[in-house]
Automatic annotation (TrEMBL):
Name this protein carries in UniProt: Transcriptional regulator
Entries under InterPro entries matching the protein: Tscrpt_reg_Rrf2, WH-like_DNA-bd_sf, WH_DNA-bd_sf
GO cellular component, one term: cytosol
A Pfam family it matches: Rrf2
Length: 154
C-alpha cells in the first residue's frame, strides 16, 4: 500500500526554505527533494493560497516563507494540504444491513475518531520553529551550515 508523504515532503521543503536568506527556486527545492520542479510549484501554489509562502518572479526570484515559523503548526500545513486521510485502514461497507458489520464499524469508528483527534492535537502542538530547532541541533557546528546540496549529500 502506498503512503501519502505530502505532509512530510512539504515540511521538509519549508524547513529548507527557512534556512535560506534569499528566495529559493522550485528547481533548487526539487533537486533537494529528488523530484520535479513542477511538483514543487504545484505544492507551493497550495501553500501560497493559504498564506504560508509567496513567490517572487525574475532574476533572484523564487519562493519565500511569509509567516513566522512559531506561528505555523504541523496541523496548519496538514489542513492546507486538504486534510489527507490519516489512516490506511477503514471500515468494511459491503453489507450495511448486517448487524455484525454495524457493531464492528461502530467500534472502529470510535477508535478512528479518538486516534484522529489525538493525532491532530499533537500536530497542532508542534510548530515549524520546533522542527527548525531540532534541525539546528542535528546540524551542530558543521562548517558550511545549511546548504541544500551539502545537507542532502550527507
Amino acid at each position: 500500500m502506498r503512503r501519502d508523504t505530502r505532509l512530510s515532503g512539504v515540511l521538509h521543503v519549508l524547513l529548507h526554505m527557512a534556512e535560506q536568506k534569499e528566495p529559493v527556486t522550485s528547481e533548487a527545492l526539487a533537486k533537494a527533494m529528488d523530484t520535479n520542479a513542477v511538483v514543487i510549484r504545484r505544492m507551493m501554489s497550495g501553500l501560497r493560497d493559504h498564506g504560508f509562502v509567496r513567490s517572487e518572479k525574475g532574476h533572484g526570484g523564487g519562493w519565500c516563507l511569509v509567516r513566522d515559523l512559531a506561528k505555523i503548526s504541523l496541523r496548519d500545513i496538514y489542513e492546507a494540504l486538504g486534510r489527507p486521510s490519516l489512516f490506511a485502514i477503514g471500515n468494511r461497507a459491503q453489507s450495511p444491513k448486517c448487524l455484525v458489520e454495524q457493531a464492528v464499524n461502530a467500534a472502529l469508528d470510535q477508535a478512528f475518531d479518538d486516534a484522529e483527534a489525538l493525532l491532530l492535537s499533537r500536530l497542532g502542538n508542534v510548530t515549524l520553529a520546533m522542527l527548525s530547532a531540532d534541525f539546528q541541533k542535528r546540524l551542530g557546528d558543521r562548517r558550511n551550515r545549511h546548504r541544500l546540496e551539502i545537507v542532502h549529500a550527507s
